[in-house]
Amino acid sequence: MPEDKKEPIMPEGTKIRKDIEYRKTGYRRLLMNIYEPAGVSKPTPLILYMHGGGWIWGDRRHCQRAGYLLEYGFTVVSIDYSMSYQAPFPAQIQDCKAALRFLRANSAGLNLDTKKVGACGHSAGGHLASLLGTTSGIRDFDTPENAGFSDRIDAVCNYYGPGSITELIRYALNAGADDTIKQGEQLIGGTLKEKMAISEKASPLRHVHSQASPFMIIHGDNDKIVNYSLSVSLHEALVRAGVESHLNIVRGGAHGGNLLETPDMEEKVAYFFNRHIG
């Protein structure tokens, strides 16, 4: 899909620092944009944002849905990550962890407060945010860059990202949802039968443990792409592990749309992040 060159519309007065390289792979430079709230004179709580797009399209500029967080006083850092046609999983989560460690390694030069960091994403980005919240310390997902810095995330907001890649593909196979099957299989590098171990490794549900980050999960019960039961399963696993998790199933909500992004929901998310990283 052609790259969208448009910049997101952010709240008036937002300070924007663009195109900061945080990692270079064999196929592309990975960049980040930093969006800081208007009128602040010192670092504000930071949220790492991962865009959606089925792991096959999008970049750091596809972050307008996170713009409301600036109005609540958060700094948003939106990142590129590897597309699945460039490299299969775990490249995507490795990039996210590399971005987080880059921010911590360069916090003084970038004038950022990274002692506590939140993660947020929509769809595929919600999946990656969930992995960040459940896989701290897993060495298979590490990269050499800034290895001495923490990959710990302190709070996660997942907007309708799949809690299980395995179940996402199974639902799609049963429903004959060819686009979702293709996206899931491209992420794991083959069919579910061929790549079951990778699919499980790519599933946040399989990494839940008692030290996982607190979660806020938002999902519509009319989502035809990612069945809301995948968020229910993730939420239930977190609760069983003793982890704080808030599940918001939106009646009539689809895969995105206004029903899931109301002012009331945005206020809930901001309150959640304030409690954990504010």
Key structural traits:
8 strands, Rossmann fold, 278 residues, alpha/beta, eight-stranded mixed beta sheet
Describe this protein's structure.
- With 278 residues, the chain is α/β, with parallel strands linked by helices.
- The chain has one domain (15-277): Alpha/Beta hydrolase fold, catalytic domain (Rossmann fold, 3-Layer(aba) Sandwich).
- It is 32% helix and 18% strand.
- The protein has nine helices and eight strands.
- The chain has helices at residues 68-71, 91-105, 107-110, 124-134, 165-175, 178-188, 196-201, 229-240, 263-277, and strands spanning 15-24, 29-36, 46-50, 75-79, 117-122, 155-159, 215-220, 245-250.
- Strands 1-2-4-3-5-6-7-8 form an eight-stranded mixed β-sheet, sandwiched between helices.
State the major sheet.
8 strands, mixed
Number of domains: 1
Q: What's the CATH class label?
A: Alpha Beta
The percentage of residues in β strands lies in 15-25%
Element order, helices and strands? EEEHEHHEHEHHHEHEH
Shape: globular
The helix content is 25-40%
Within the CATH hierarchy, at the fold level, what is the topology? Rossmann fold
Global structural class: alpha/beta
Contiguous low-pLDDT stretches (5 residues minimum) are: none
Mean pLDDT: 96
Indicate the multimeric state: single chain
Beta-strand segment tally: 8
Distance between the termini: 37 Å
With strands numbered from the N-terminus, the spatial order across the biggest sheet is 1-2-4-3-5-6-7-8
Write the CATH architecture name.
3-Layer(aba) Sandwich
CATH superfamily: Alpha/Beta hydrolase fold, catalytic domain
Rounded to an integer in angstroms, the radius of gyration calculated over CA atoms is 17 Å
Count, helices: 9
